[in-house]
Amino acid sequence: MSDIILHHHDPSPFAEKVRLALGLKGLAWQSVQIPMVMPKPQLTALTGGYRKTPVLQVGADVYCDTRRIALELERRFPGPGLFPAGSEGVALALGYWSDTALFQPGAALSMGTNEQIPAPVLEDRMAFFDFLEDDDLCAPPDHFFSQFVAGLAQLERMLADGRDWLLGDAPGWADVACYSPVWMCRGNIAGGDGLLAPFTRLREWEARVAALGHGERGELDAEAALAVAREAEPMTRPAVGDDAWPRLAVGTPVQVAPDDYGRDPTNGTLLVLDADEIAIAREEGPLGRVVIHFPRAGYRVDPLP
Fold first, then answer.
1. Does residue 151 contact residue 74 with C-beta atoms inside 8 Å?
2. d(CA 51, CA 30)
3. In the chain, N or C: fewer CB atoms in 10 Å?
């Protein structure tokens, strides 16, 4: 069995990023399907409360947020690389742009135009996405169409010189991160095919990204994944940089939460804090000791009283 376990659900555009990254690297992995809405008892038992999709597990180390997952996959499996020709900084910046400028209006269009979304999922997402108001789904979707199409046009311009990939001659994280809202558009936005039709270079690039595939996927149930964590020891060593903010020591009780939306906190003791990562240790009762990893960018870490 592969050491890589991905907790996700198939319709998730954020999970699609990671599935394609696994495909780009040609990796074998185990799929654990999680519920689309709360409660998610097995997932939150593993993460200490973090509920966003996807989560990557390797033994008793748990990686949250696609940014942190990408960097960990690159560290463990450096080739083929997600950041060819030294493109890490630009690729991560483009990923952030995609998550905001493209995903947010795309999510609004998905929820506002797709009548196939089950009511419990729609209710859950409206409570979860604090960048949307109930009135947004009652108004004409013109604004969100305009913003989403502006993002598609930007991708078309990035490809205007005839390149195959966003950052040059090889595929990487920039491609899979910017592809995920396009993938969402195809399947979840009413009239999505028509939105994409004018963008010839984008559609050709879309086909190339999709052809990366998802690697070698197996299936695993959630209880088996918890058993893997229970039987393993975390492989993370303590490391807090002298220049890390806030000024906290290893072992400090802390709370970590996203600073955009879905701000469900996770409590634990600080293990790693630097410019790239926050990692905390938790003793999860029958699960034992696990270490949960977050990216530094986009997350708050605060000492607990």
1. no
2. 19
3. C
